[in-house]
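testing teh design pipeline on a random one, pls ignore if ur not involved
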């Protein structure tokens, strides 16, 4: 009996060819076989899949992954010529732009209730991951019950509960209010995230060391100055960086300044998503299971000073975030 089905794409030259592959267990081993040629375009793939009566059970079982493949490739084919991003590989850039195109041309044109429901589903996943990166021990299932049904998880601190609830409030506030992207926004988001968690709101008044970091945060007396320099630099960087790379660079620069006594990462990830959404991109999730990779690409960029935005420092971070966007987008917004 067949276990699952998926679509395999083979490229010869620049021409794609699509096949339906079926994976099944035979004598205790997993055997993979191409069972049908599906054509050389996503449109043809959809048509031929409907006529494959013999494998409908396997197709239905794997429908979500098949749909994800079809939609991502369909919109990749629709992406028009774009200016090459020096901070990202060509194929990866096209995949990011495919997600952006689907987000604007399909998702944002859905019924408002559908959009809000989808954002809520995304937010739960985002809140779980962004707080877990900082040590929150509430599980994804517990987070869903908390944020959907107000059911408090057992044996968890109120700080962890507020951590998730504050993240939800801050995310939807940025979506609903569309505030200006400026220094006041940084302070507002941090205040919201630290509500009932830490009274030390506003820029830190003392110098700090970040445990196991490879950089020295800005001295307290220079935090506000460095944040002002960062925002002034944004206007200049817009002329040379793609909107996606700009968001990635801003995220790192703010993390390196480390302007707050606590909540720097959580604030930075909310702001990263808001800057992406202001530029027409969907929000992304930096996954807790890849925390080590996330810290590594941030650390590689640490060699750049406050004004340096070179690709040699930032290509790894930009490509890491691009892959996180692609993964989280088609899993959450492919409705």
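output:
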């Amino acid at each position: 009996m067949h276990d699952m089905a998926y679509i395999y794409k083979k490229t010869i030259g620049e021409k794609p060819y699509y096949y339906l592959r079926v994976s099944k267990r035979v004598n205790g081993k997993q055997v993979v076989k191409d069972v049908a040629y599906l054509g050389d375009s996503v449109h043809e793939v959809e048509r031929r899949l409907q006529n494959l009566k013999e494998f409908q059970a396997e197709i239905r079982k794997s429908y979500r992954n098949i749909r994800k493949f079809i939609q991502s490739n369909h919109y990749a084919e629709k992406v028009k010529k774009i200016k090459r991003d020096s901070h990202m590989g060509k194929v990866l850039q096209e995949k990011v732009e495919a997600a952006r195109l689907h987000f604007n041309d399909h998702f944002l044109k859905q019924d408002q209730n559908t959009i809000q429901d989808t954002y809520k589903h995304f937010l739960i996943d985002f809140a779980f991951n962004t707080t877990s990166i900082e040590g929150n021990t509430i599980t994804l299932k517990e987070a869903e019950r908390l944020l959907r049904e107000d059911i408090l998880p057992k044996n968890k601190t109120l700080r962890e509960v507020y951590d998730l609830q504050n993240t939800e409030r801050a995310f939807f506030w940025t979506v609903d209010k569309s505030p200006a992207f400026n220094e006041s926004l940084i302070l507002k988001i941090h205040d919201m995230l630290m509500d009932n968690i830490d009274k030390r709101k506003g820029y830190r008044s003392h110098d700090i060391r970040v445990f196991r970091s490879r950089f020295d945060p800005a001295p307290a007396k220079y935090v506000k100055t460095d944040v002002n320099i960062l925002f002034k630099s944004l206007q200049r960087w817009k002329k040379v960086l793609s909107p996606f790379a700009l968001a990635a660079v801003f995220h790192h620069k703010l993390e390196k300044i480390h302007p707050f006594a606590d909540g720097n990462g959580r604030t930075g990830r909310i702001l990263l998503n808001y800057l992406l959404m202001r530029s027409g991109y969907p929000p992304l999730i930096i996954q807790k299971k890849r925390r080590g990779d996330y810290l590594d690409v941030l650390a590689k960029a640490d060699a750049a000073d406050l004004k340096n935005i070179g690709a040699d420092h930032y290509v790894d971070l930009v490509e890491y975030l691009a892959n996180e966007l692609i993964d989280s987008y088609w899993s959450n917004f492919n409705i």
